[in-house]
Specification:
- With 236 residues, the protein is α+β, with helices and mostly antiparallel strands.
- It folds into 2 domains: 5-71; 97-232, no CATH class.
- The chain has helices at residues 5-32, 38-94, 106-111, 115-148; strands at residues 97-105, 156-159, 172-183, 186-200, 204-206, 211-225, 229-232.
- Strands 1, 2, 3, 4, 5, 6 and 7 form a 7-stranded antiparallel β-sheet that branches.
- The radius of gyration is 35 Å and the shape is rod-shaped.
């Protein structure tokens, strides 16, 4: 939380003004004994006006400090939310190369029609694994955010609905990844554009174990990251 030293100063000033007003009233009260009470009436009016002014100044100052505190809290929540989304982006970059392969023993190898057919299967396998990988990263970061905010408000919630890629080109996989993070009364949104290209390796033979390996690799070749948009939400 933001430390607000000005609040202590305002309270101190208020206490000083009240003390001065009290001294003034006592002084006028003694004088009123010699002036048949007229001075006392005047003093009470002045004291009431001064007290109202002091309280008004104090109220305005306190409201300004509360507004400043709320603004700083909103900024802090936004920066923390952006931090979690940046973690998602960093993890996707860290997994920019996804290796995959199909390994067959001699019996399995003998049942396959051709090497090309096995590579097609390997490509399909790794192609279908990209979306779950991205969803897993988002889920892990979301769990981390929930743990960080377990006992505090506002809670952080990251959500994303990743569309399945078009099957037009089996070797290229494109994803649009919308990300939203809700924290307090703010919702941050951004969109990632991810493009993967799948490369086939060279068939490998393991003579010791009698296995045949068909390697494929998915490489992140396109990455576009839109800037954040921030919207206010209405809390129930």
């Amino acid at each position: 939380m933001l430390n607000l030293p000005h609040l202590d100063s305002v309270v101190s000033d208020l206490q000083m003004k009240r003390k001065q007003t009290g001294n003034f009233i006592r002084h006028i009260a003694r004088a009123s004994l010699r002036n048949e009470g007229y001075v006392l009436v005047y003093a009470l009016i002045v004291a009431a006006v001064l007290t109202a002014v002091v309280l008004g100044v104090f109220s305005v100052s306190l409201n300004n400090l509360k507004a400043q505190q709320a603004m700083v809290d909103d900024m802090k929540a936004r920066y923390e939310a952006e931090g979690y989304l940046e973690m998602v982006v960093a993890e996707i970059h860290a997994n920019a190369i996804l290796p995959g392969n199909i390994t067959l023993n001699a019996v399995e190898e003998a049942t396959r029609d051709s090497d090309a057919a096995v590579f097609i299967e390997a490509v399909a396998n790794i192609r279908s694994s990209i979306k779950p990988m991205i969803e897993g990263i988002i889920s892990d970061i979301n769990l981390l955010a929930q743990e960080d905010y377990a006992d505090t408000e506002p809670h952080v919630l990251i959500s994303s609905e990743i569309q399945d890629p078009s099957p037009e080109d089996i070797m290229d996989v494109a994803f649009t990844v919308p990300l939203k993070i809700l924290t307090g009364n703010q919702m941050l949104e951004t969109t990632l554009q991810l493009g993967y290209h799948i490369d086939e390796g060279t068939k490998e033979s393991d003579d010791v174990n009698g296995e045949y390996v068909y390697p494929v690799t998915a490489n992140l070749i396109e990455f576009k990251y839109n800037s954040f948009t921030v919207a206010l939400t209405v809390n129930d």
